[in-house]
């Protein structure tokens, strides 16, 4: 399978003769399965045309921060949320200086400033510019901000001089890009994640369900797998595809089936994340044949479904248990009560609305545990999933450290 499948890479191109290499870089990233959006500075368009990059990426190239049509929908913010990685290649000395200063007077700089995603740069400049103390100070500052540097290389330059400053080759950039999507932070950990809705049959053609798409749970599964975990994804009816291939997927339909699948796989589980929107009730009786419309009113007797989250948390050797709470009001209050009632370690809450929650690509989360709470601003579900996995990883590492000292952890 392509190693960058389902990865969103925003490729930034700045003014440098090395911009011609960006065409090959775009082609190779696409071959590896990445979805590429290209943003060019004005000076970059003098070295290579946007039309070339549009043909190679399969998407229109963005160049102007003051594009009325794009910015009517806050286009630079949408691109910042969309990207799993911002890769600037080539990155000129001027761009590095603007990135250091936090400037936002062009589209690419504005996206970098607004994004929570990792940023990587492949510098390209004259050897004297690279060695200049101002550039080196900028590099040190950016590295302290966790900006990833790819290169530069050493050799002959377009100006006729020789030294450090060449943009490294596309294959070298790709080799350094791949590890950015895998951390190994959860290597050796077994994680079970539930995702999507459940369907509770009324008769052979009708059922009770909800609006969950499963996007958040699938994003969490991908983030956990990229962190090195052994991931089992138990999902209700959804059209989504799980990536990477290492994820073990178990498809179910009903809450009872989801409960049984979770319990069957709970052995040696280190972390359980219940992001599925499981039906709280199911019809007490399922009609054998389709119920005909005969009366003005119809009553259904509903019975509770198994409480998967509470059941996992109540196990003698329970894993670190994370629940989800989708609310329409009093989000923090209801989420805190649910965490305490279920006896779980952490709860992730979000308000269901027109721009976040069910069937949306974006979300806004409140992550709550016994000792604290953190708010994750509106962003893509893929970005939020990475942030959530990082938070969980920190908690797990703290527990492991405490257990090694012989102290009580939970």
Description of the molecule:
The chain is an alpha/beta fold and 410 residues long. The chain folds into 2 domains: 8-181, Flavin prenyltransferase-like (Rossmann fold), CATH 3.40.50.1950; 190-405, Rossmann fold (3-Layer(aba) Sandwich), CATH 3.40.50.10300. Helix content is 34%, strand content 24%. The strands form 5 sheets. The protein has an 8-stranded mixed β-sheet, with helices on both faces. A 5-stranded parallel β-sheet has the order 2-1-3-4-5, sandwiched between helices. Strand 6 and strand 7 (162-166) form a beta hairpin. Helix 1 packs parallel to helix 2, helix 1 (20-31) packs across helix 9 (170-177) and helix 10 crosses helix 14. The chain is elongated and about 85 Å long.
Low-pLDDT segments: 405-410
Strand order of the largest sheet: 12-11-8-13-16-17-18-19
- Please name the CATH topology of the largest domain: Rossmann fold
Q: What's the β-strand tally?
A: 19
The backbone outline, from C-alpha atoms, is elongated
Q: Specify the biggest β-sheet.
A: 8 strands, mixed
The chain-level mean pLDDT equals: 91
- Domain count, please report it: 2
* Derived structural class: alpha/beta
| CATH architecture identity of the largest domain | 3-Layer(aba) Sandwich
Radius of gyration: 25 Å
What is the rounded distance between the termini? 41 Å
Quick description:
This protein is an alpha/beta fold and 410 residues long. It is built from 14 helices and 19 strands. The radius of gyration is 25 Å and the shape is elongated.
